[in-house]
Design goal:
- The complex is a heterodimer.
- Chain A has helices at 17-26, 56-68, 95-101, 104-111, 131-141, 162-174; strands at 3-12, 34-39, 45-54, 72-79, 83-94, 114-118, 122-129, 148-151, 155-158.
- Chain A is of the alpha+beta class.
- By secondary structure, chain B is α/β, with parallel strands linked by helices.
- The chains are: A alpha+beta, B alpha/beta.
- The A-B interface holds A 11-12, 15-16, 19-20, 23, 27, 60-61, 64-65, 67-68, 70-73, 171, 175, 181, 183-189, 192, 194 and B 126-131, 141-142, 145-146, 149-153, 155-156, 159, 170, 184-186, 203-206, 327-329, 331-333.
Chain lengths: 195, 584
């Protein structure tokens, strides 16, 4: 049975690794529903959070293929019950509409939202929660002329992650990450002789 | 090597001894220094604009590095593969940016699926031109990501020593594979303080070998000891792990019948009494049928390819499965293992051998032999002793065995001749069967044979090729001509793209769609390249012709006209179970 899985991947910080991981999914024609890349709690180690809909067996095999990559330290897969997860959403609405017709205070309270920007022409609300919660606020704001809505990728914490966290810190302390080398010549075309 | 560099090198050594001081080298020189430090003796390559600085530096290293100028980059990388497969070392290939790099892709995919260690170095446009659609610019890193074990783009010369060290380490350790290093032209030119070369033996995020779990080895041994009908199937892992002796000791102690996958062939001498033949679509009768009768199936360094398993839901369902593999991703990928033995089989096999009881399984082995006899009666006898005047591929291979006594390296292309050669060729030594297994790359054999000869110069190398595959890479005759190499080319010409024709015969009502392929006069063609040869279609002349080929001083092309419409049997039709193998 296909269900929602969150894959957490700990990696080195390396140009091109995103592609290497992404093609493991695209090769099997599996859609990535959500993808977040960020630093982890251990300096120099990055963390991918990937959400897909698949059977447990397929997800397990995908994780092994991900772990095969030279720059990947570890890949976990978890069901929604095994993680705490959140997504952030931003909503832009016309200020006059909101001011005239809406009980802003109550709305914000009900949806755990807050106003990030209030200008004469528009107001931006922000809320953090699970998919259904952020979707609900879209429904509420639509009648007030919702101009723009955007939702972030999922970020997730694995409930039972203590063991790996300790290993990770230890690991980074013993062998610090290599520095990332980026192309520093892109804007130096004028100074370079070519043939 | 020029005296300038020599002095520089001596200076470098001296300075290393003294301690902190460094010498100035260009990125290109650092690349070549890295190759020498890694013990590379042969490079296959083709120059071009973006790799010119490396070729310029190579001019001074001619004495230390043998560069083989190929005729096409695909030929270069297949030669690198042949070299790696015959020598057990990492193959090295040079190509330029753009088309040079894209021409490597087929070989990379082939090396990736067949776990062949390669380091390919491609030139790239200047770093400031990346992404500008510059002349001969192509995004080779992203093109090759799915077909490399690792790849990396160098834009600064100071990265060269440690990245190349990483490249060799990754290519050659664990489950080997191809690595591609793309070096921008500015980095090749750039002078930097060279602090010497240090080999890599550790990357923190990379585990070449999983840790062996003793409990699994014990569980596997128990299972083998309790088995009435144990059956070993082995792949290239035995060869890549250099575990041929360990493997032999294992099957001999347990009295275990053993069958090989196409890439496992030659890991065990074919004459070994416990060798029961080849697995898979055109494998032998016994090992295929008895896969579905054994009680414990022990897979060693093989990956349950679909050509081996046939229909998965009817594959060895009655058996307990023990899977030994160095790559954890292979365990449970296609066939679920009851006992997974992660690890290098060079370590796990002796552990297992120690724990298993000394046994013989005479009745079980006799069962294999009974199937072999049936296969001989129905298929093999006819193939090796045809009644018609037309020659069969099998009798050619059989004669080749008789004359080489199984001592030659046989490089095959892809198709009917490949299946026949692998079925009938005899091998005494490991690393003797070189073929494109996983990818099935037509055109592989001629360049791979060139590389194989460079990798094992004391051995006879025979390339067995069909008339279709030979025409895909025959430009490499030029490489043979220029290097004066001694490679034997045996073309089995059936005037058809035989394997596709066989399928059209069996499954498409003989609707022969575009399989009727014409050939040039191969003997004349070889002659144009200064290579001797002859064409034979008469049984009476065949043996002498093969002898002439093998005894000829230098390369030789022998074309054998074989029967047009012979089909390779036995065959497990696609979508069928291994026990539904057909003898005709």
């Amino acid at each position: 049975m296909k269900i929602e899985f969150t894959i957490t991947v700990y990696t080195e910080n390396q140009v091109g690794l995103l592609n290497r991981i992404a093609i493991i999914f695209s090769r099997r024609k599996i859609n990535i529903e959500s993808l977040n890349v960020s630093p982890s709690e251990a300096e120099g180690i990055h963390r991918f959070t990937i959400v897909i809909h698949e059977t447990e067996e397929v997800v397990r095999k995908l994780c092994r293929q991900i772990e095969r990559q030279v720059e990947v330290l570890k890949a976990y897969h978890n069901t929604n019950e095994e993680i705490i997860w959140q997504e952030m959403a931003l909503y832009k609405v016309p200020t006059d509409e909101v001011a005239e017709k809406m009980k802003v205070e109550r709305l914000l309270r009900e949806h755990g939202a807050r106003a990030v920007v209030i200008r004469k022409d528009y107001t931006i609300f922000e809320t953090t929660g699970q998919r259904e919660e952020t979707d609900k606020l879209v429904k509420v704001l639509e009648p007030y002329g919702l101009i723009e809505f955007v939702r972030s990728a999922r970020v997730a914490i694995i409930k039972a992650s203590k063991g790996f966290h300790e290993k990770l810190k230890e690991f980074e302390a013993v062998e610090p990450a290599e520095e990332l080398v980026e192309n520093e010549f892109l804007d130096k075309a004028k100074d370079v002789f070519t043939m | 090597m020029s005296s300038v560099i020599e002095t520089k090198q001596e200076a470098a050594v001296e300075q290393q001894l003294k301690g902190t001081e460094t010498i100035e080298l260009s990125g290109s020189q650092a690349v070549l220094e890295a190759l020498i430090a890694e013990g590379v003796d042969t490079v296959f390559g083709y120059p071009g604009g973006a790799i010119m600085p490396i070729y310029d530096a190579l001019y001074d290293y001619k004495e230390k590095l043998n560069h083989v100028l190929v005729r096409h980059e695909q030929g270069g990388i297949h030669a690198g593969q042949g070299y790696a497969r015959s020598s057990g070392k990492v193959g090295v290939v040079f190509a330029t940016s753009g088309p040079g790099a894209t021409n490597l892709v087929t070989g990379l995919a082939d090396a990736q699926i067949d776990s062949t260690p390669l380091v390919c170095i491609t030139g790239q446009v200047f770093a400031h031109l990346l992404g500008t659609d510059a002349f001969q610019e192509t995004d080779v890193i992203n093109i090759t990501t799915p077909v490399t074990k690792w790849n990396y783009q160098i834009t600064d010369a100071t990265e060269i020593p440690h990245i190349l060290a990483k490249a060799f380490y990754i290519a050659g350790t664990g489950r080997p594979g191809p690595v591609l290093i793309d070096i921008t032209k500015n980095a090749q030119f750039q002078k930097f303080d060279y602090k010497g070369y240090q080999k890599c033996n550790h990357i923190r995020s990379y585990r070449p070998k999983p840790i062996v779990r003793k409990s699994y080895v014990e569980a596997a041994a128990k299972m083998i000891n309790e088995a009435k009908k144990p059956f070993v199937i082995f792949g290239q892992g035995v060869i890549l792990g250099r575990a041929e002796q360990e493997f032999k000791a294992f099957i001999e102690k347990g009295g275990l019948p053993a069958a090989w996958t196409i890439l496992g062939l030659s890991a065990l001498p074919t004459s070994h009494p416990q060798n029961v033949g080849m697995l898979g679509m055109h494998g032998n009768y016994g090992p295929n049928v008895l896969t579905n009768e054994c009680d414990v199936l022990i897979a060693v360094g093989m990956r349950f390819d679909d050509r081996v398993t046939g229909r998965l839901d009817k594959y060895a369902k009655q058996a307990k499965i023990i899977h030994l593999d160095i790559d954890p991703a292979e365990i449970d990928k296609n066939v679920k293992a009851d006992v997974p033995v992660w690890g290098d089989c060079k370590e796990t096999l002796p552990m297992l051998t120690k724990l298993i009881e000394e046994k013989k399984h005479p009745e079980w082995l006799a069962k294999f032999n009974a199937f072999t006899q049936e296969e001989i009666d129905v298929v093999i006898h006819k193939e090796l002793n045809p009644v018609s005047e037309e020659l069969s591929m099998g009798e050619v291979i059989n004669l080749l065995n008789e004359i080489t006594h199984g001592d030659a390296i046989i490089v095959t292309d892809v198709g009917q001749h490949q299946m026949v050669a692998c079925r009938y060729a005899q091998f005494n030594e490991s690393k003797s069967n070189i073929t494109s297994g996983g990818l099935g790359t037509m055109g592989f054999a001629l360049p791979a044979a060139i590389g194989a000869k460079f990798g094992a110069q004391h051995r006879t190398v025979v390339a067995v090729i069909g008339d279709g595959g030979f025409q895909m890479t025959l430009q490499e005759l030029g490489t043979i001509m220029q290097t004066g190499l001694n490679v034997k080319i045996l073309i089995l010409n059936n005037r058809f793209l035989g394997m596709v024709r066989q399928w059209q015969d069996m499954f498409n009502d003989k609707r022969y769609s575009f399989v009727d392929i014409q050939s040039p006069d191969y003997v004349q063609l070889a002659k144009a390249y200064g290579i001797s040869g002859q064409s034979v279609d008469d049984r009476a002349l065949l043996k002498t012709a093969i002898k002439t080929m093998l005894e000829h001083d230098g390369s030789y092309l022998l074309e054998v006209m074989v029967s047009k419409e012979n089909n390779v049997f036995p065959m497990v039709p696609q979508g069928c179970s291994v026990s539904e193998i057909r003898l005709k």
